[in-house]
Amino acid sequence: MTELDRKKEQTPVPKEWAYAPAPESRDVVSIEDRYGHFVGGQWLEPSETYTTISPATEETLAEVGQATPEEVEGAVAAAREAFENGWSGIAPAERAKYLFRIARILQERSREFAVLESLNGGKPIKESRDVDLPLAAAHFFYYAGWADKLEYAFPNRRPRPIGVAGQIIPWNFPLLMLSWKIAPALAAGNTVVLKPAETTPLSALLFADVLRQAELPPGVVNIVTGDGRAGAALVKSEGVDKIAFTGSTEVGKAIQRELAGTGKRLTLELGGKAANIIFDDAALDQAVEGIVNGIYFNQGHVCCAGSRLLVQESIYEPVVEKLKRRLTTLRVGDPLDKNTDVGEINSKQQLDKIRELVEAGEEEGAEIYQPPCRLPEKGYWFAPTVFTNVAQSYRIAQEEIFGPVLSVLTFRTPEEAVEKANNTPYGLSAGVWTEKGSRILWMAERLRAGVVWANTFNRFDPTSPFGGYKESGFGREGGRHGLEPYIDFDGSERGGG
Ligand code: NDP
């Protein structure tokens, strides 16, 4: 018997080639039973509370404050006081030091934040660990660098901070959206009142502890929690000079109406229905990975998700076949398992919305494909879904589903691809897959989208501006552009939205 044969006999043959669970430990996070509002550097006892849960298990994680209009006003007053009595006047290089500290602490505590983010929001741990946390820290590092260089960012325009910024963020990237909002606001010398989404307040509340560690002066950042009523109170508050909002187009429009004529500055980052366009000369396997990343990343809870796939007709069949095969290898399940590719839907309300739109797609005549996968019994789950045979007029091709649902359409010429891609009320992002650089540029010039990715999708970088056209909102976050909404210039008029 040869050495090799002997080894073969000793090695047990696995019965099935499935991944063994690899759960991330929860021990690294300690969650309080009850949280108040973080105002003026202190925890204030809330007058009302609600419970926040883990959507995967539906277990209660903590009691959290539901801010009343009076509590919101208190936070705004603390931010005003901090703005006028210190923060706006300190040397910009000192402001930068705080931002650098926050960035470094986020890096040091990244595992703790990643676990909490996945617990409270449902996203796979490998995404919160490898995307949300590194990017959140990178935003603070990046804007720390700008804090003492504003004169160079905007030469001859004498930049000044605006005052108190009210910031309202959604539940799909809680900590990352917090960093997109807070980092540029502080770098420009403003103070902040932030309201996280009702379903995902915990990482923002843990962030208050980072502020304590960084010794940020009291009142520079205040965090009030609660549902949309708390957000509405922040929008209405007379003490706020600027509102920055990320969320649905519907609420964005309501905020714009509310602020019209008030002189308050406004930026809106709203919904999307991005086209991911695959030409017949693209590297197909790479493109299929890009399609999967475009729509199943974060369960499709991504405003810039590539939810409409436009495939050149000549390669339609191989692309759809490869895509379906790839879908069978996606692992749906426990967000804290390091093997998981697709976690759970953030809330029952969101799951109901996805189901409703998927039913509409089937009723309208599209053909549905879902890979065989066993979904856990508890929690809110939805299998990765592909619709073929989709007409442009179908609701699944028009409306933002905000879930792991892809609609496939075809085109013949680049002109047709542009026309179909732009046939949407939104204009946040798009993707183009082709090996021809000239075609990428030709397409990018014609696509009405704030971001156009070439041979990739869902790539984010703090140096790169992000924002939309049409019903996807206005204003940019990220890059030097992301500072501008937080700055007044000598002699400039207030925009009022
Ligand atoms: P919302 O727009 O309602 O929520 C975004 C944020 O605004 C949350 O903090 C929310 O609080 C707050 N808010 C709600 N109502 C008001 C108001 N009247 N005034 C001020 N702030 C308010 O989004 P939803 O969470 O309800 O999601 C609904 C749909 O929106 C999704 O299905 C998806 O299609 C889309 N969406 C798009 C996002 C994007 O990034 N483009 C992000 C999130 C959602 P609360 O959490 O308590 O409701």
Description:
The longest helix has 22 residues. This protein is globular. It is of the alpha/beta class and 497 residues long. It is 38% helix and 16% strand. α4 crosses α5 and α11 crosses α12. NADPH dihydro-nicotinamide-adenine-dinucleotide phosphate binds next to α9, α10 and α13.
Provide key terms for this protein.
single chain, 497 residues, alpha/beta, seven-stranded mixed beta sheet, six-stranded mixed beta sheet, 16 helices, 16% strand, globular, binds NADPH dihydro-nicotinamide-adenine-dinucleotide phosphate
Record the SSE blueprint.
Layout: H1 3-10, E1 34-35, E2 37-39, E3 42-44, E4 49-53, E5 60-65, H2 69-84, H3 92-108, H4 110-121, H5 125-146, H6 150-153, E6 159-161, E7 164-168, H7 174-187, E8 191-195, H8 202-214, E9 221-223, H9 228-236, E10 242-246, H10 249-259, E11 265-269, E12 275-278, H11 284-296, E13 308-312, H12 316-327, H13 348-364, E14 367-369, E15 385-388, H14 395-398, E16 405-411, H15 414-422, E17 429-433, H16 437-446, E18 451-454, E19 473-474, E20 487-489
Parallel strand pairs: 1-5, 7-8, 7-10, 8-9, 10-11, 12-13, 12-17, 13-16, 15-16, 17-18
Antiparallel strand pairs: 2-3, 4-5, 6-20, 11-19, 14-15
Helix pairs in contact: 2-9, 3-5, 3-8, 4-5, 5-7, 11-12
Bound molecules: NADPH dihydro-nicotinamide-adenine-dinucleotide phosphate.
NADPH dihydro-nicotinamide-adenine-dinucleotide phosphate binds at residues 168-172, 195, 197-198, 227-228, 231-232, 235, 246-248, 251, 254-255, 270-271, 303, 350, 353, 400, 402.
